[in-house]
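Incident log, support desk, overnight shift.

02:14 A customer reports that sequence design results differ from what the structure should imply. Their input is reproduced verbatim below. On-call engineer (initials T.W.) acknowledged and began investigating.
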């Protein structure tokens, strides 16, 4: 069985998993292909919606839901943090020691802002990178 391993359960990872299921449905149902998403929290947060919180049109509680509820039932969800990726051995190891082999790897880990790298950002910038902001 071939395994497609997707690291990240944000918008990119979730869409990729569900689109792959649509394209590979027959092969998945025959047991030829497995699609696995690894997500650190198991909670999907729709971060583009933070902009609407800032404008008073949305609440943070409406922008988060269990990742499992957004994935096709044929997708396996693993909740855990990635410790390392060994591309030579085609193996991803999680911080709890779980090892996941793969035939195809999709990196959909998103971006991470580092406001501490921008002088005065934390104290003077108005942004919508987090629900709290």
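02:41 Re-run completed on a clean worker. Output:
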């Amino acid at each position: 069985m071939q395994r497609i391993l997707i690291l990240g359960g944000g918008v990119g990872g979730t869409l990729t998993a569900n689109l792959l299921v649509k394209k590979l449905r027959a092969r998945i149902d025959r047991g030829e292909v497995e699609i696995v998403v690894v997500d650190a929290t198991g909670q999907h947060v729709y971060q583009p919606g933070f902009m609407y919180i800032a404008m008073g049109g949305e609440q943070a509680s409406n922008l988060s839901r269990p990742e499992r509820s957004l994935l096709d039932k044929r997708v396996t969800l693993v909740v855990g943090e990635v410790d390392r990726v060994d591309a030579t051995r085609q193996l991803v190891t999680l911080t709890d020691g779980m090892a996941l082999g793969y035939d195809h790897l999709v990196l959909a880990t998103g971006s991470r802002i580092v406001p501490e790298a921008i002088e005065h950002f934390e104290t003077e910038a108005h942004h919508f990178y987090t629900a709290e902001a």
